[in-house]
């Protein structure tokens, strides 16, 4: 039976390394993906993910448990990403449009978007590239709110916990970010 | 709930798409959009944007190959535990033993110098003690000159008795 986050946190607090390892394995992909969306660099994303878990372990005693463990973890990750971007304005871009087999952008799109016709595949690739470019142009705060909503599927209340800001701020950032994306993707959708 | 205007709908499009509205408001917006092509288009376009942004970002996330982070995190965990252990040790050491350690360190520091501290003698004034020379190995003797009222500190730096 899979142990709950709360149980693993309690065990990790008591010095059980395997319990903390369980939390790392459960969330490492989510945290790295979020960091990748924020930073657009695989290496930086993995560094941030690793640092997120190290920081989480350091402050495990301060985790009150009134919020979900994953929102607390996202909060650490987002703050590290924002710090990283403030510290290092240059961002190395990884060619996400091609995977290791060199199959191009379409390989990175889900099956639902992959179609047989070459024209459709090229159009999907173009849309994905334009979306990535438009996301890059958002400020880190606006990018964070979009990723937490559209990718992680967090509610406004959860996003406000992660970003440590009022729900109204989440709503206005989301509204602004979406209008920016709509403007940049006009004619494409 | 009274019928919504286009301005009302415009102000809640994001919350509608994210299903963050109370159920009656969700229904009212849907009802309005059913009769208003403009608001219907606005809602559909926003829904499409959210879908394509979400799909692209999720596809990138799925393509990301994340190695097992535990070995690197475990090193950080070990460092943290070592730091906590030292913090704990410092906390349990009694204050008097810390003070004794500091005092011992101070004594060693004072006695450990290669050169004995010297002082150029000033002309003694009445009732003034003058230290001519100090040496950690020397014998020291105080002599008071009754006539001038000066106290002399006699030091033998060979370690032998004073004459």
Question: What is the CATH homology-level superfamily of one domain in chain A?
Answer: RNA polymerase sigma factor, region 2, helix turn helix motif
Output mean pLDDT of chain A: 84
Main β-sheet description of chain A? none
> In the CATH classification, which architecture of one domain in chain A applies?
Orthogonal Bundle
3D structure, described in words:
The complex is a heterodimer of chains A (189) and B (163). Chain A is built from nine helices and no strands. Chain A has 189 residues and is mainly α. Chain A has a domain at 1-94: Orthogonal Bundle (Rna Polymerase Sigma Factor, Chain: A), CATH 1.10.1740. In chain A, helix 3 crosses helix 4 (69-87), helix 4 packs across helix 8 (156-163) and helix 7 packs across helix 9 (167-184). Chain A starts with a helix and ends in a 5-residue tail after the last helix. With 163 residues, chain B is mainly α. Chain B folds into three domains: 6-63; 70-111; 115-163, no CATH class. Chain B is 56% helix and 10% strand. Chain B has helices at 6-11, 13-17, 23-35, 37-63, 70-92, 95-111; strands at 129-131, 139-145, 150-156. Chain B has a three-stranded mixed beta sheet, with no helix packed on it. The N and C termini of chain B lie far apart (114 Å). The A-B interface holds A 17, 20-21, 24-25, 28-29, 32-33, 36-37, 42, 45-46, 49-50, 53-54, 57-58, 96, 99-100, 107-110, 112-113, 127-128, 131-132, 135, 146-147, 149-151, 155-156, 171, 174-175, 178, 181-182, 185, 189 and B 14-15, 18, 20, 45-46, 48-50, 52-70, 72-74, 76-77, 80.
């Amino acid at each position: 039976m899979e142990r709950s986050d709360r149980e693993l946190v309690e065990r990790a607090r008591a010095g059980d390394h395997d319990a903390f390892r369980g939390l790392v394995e459960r969330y490492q992909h989510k945290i790295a993906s979020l960091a990748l969306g924020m930073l657009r660099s695989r290496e930086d994303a993995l560094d941030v993910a690793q640092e997120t878990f190290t920081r989480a372990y350091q402050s495990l005693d301060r985790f009150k448990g009134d919020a979900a463990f994953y929102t607390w973890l996202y909060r650490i990750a987002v703050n590290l990403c924002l710090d990283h971007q403030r510290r290092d304005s240059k961002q190395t871009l990884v060619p996400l449009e091609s995977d290791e087999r060199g199959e191009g952008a379409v390989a990175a799109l889900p099956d639902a978007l992959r179609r047989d016709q070459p024209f459709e595949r090229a159009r999907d690739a173009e849309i994905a590239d334009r979306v990535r470019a438009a996301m890059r142009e958002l400020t880190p705060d606006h990018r964070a709110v979009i990723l937490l909503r559209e990718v992680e599927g967090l509610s406004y209340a959860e996003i406000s916990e992660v970003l440590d800001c009022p729900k109204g701020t989440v709503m206005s950032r989301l509204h602004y970010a979406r209008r920016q994306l709509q403007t940049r993707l006009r004619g494409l959708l | 709930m009274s019928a919504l205007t286009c301005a009302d709908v415009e102000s809640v499009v994001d919350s509608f798409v994210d299903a963050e509205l109370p159920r009656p408001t969700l229904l009212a917006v849907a009802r309005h959009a059913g009769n208003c092509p403009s608001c219907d288009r606005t809602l559909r376009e926003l829904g499409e944007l959210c879908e394509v942004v979400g799909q692209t970002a999720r596809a990138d996330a799925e393509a990301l190959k994340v190695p097992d982070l535990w070995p690197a995190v475990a090193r950080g965990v070990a460092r943290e535990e070592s730091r906590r252990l030292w913090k704990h040790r410092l906390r349990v050491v009694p204050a008097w033993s810390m003070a004794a350690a500091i005092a011992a360190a101070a004594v060693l520091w004072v006695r450990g110098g290669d050169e004995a501290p010297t002082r150029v003698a000033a002309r003694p004034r009445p009732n003034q003690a003058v230290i001519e020379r100090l040496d950690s190995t020397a014998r020291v003797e105080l002599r008071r000159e009754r006539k001038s009222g000066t106290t002399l500190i006699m030091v033998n730096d060979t370690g032998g008795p004073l004459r």
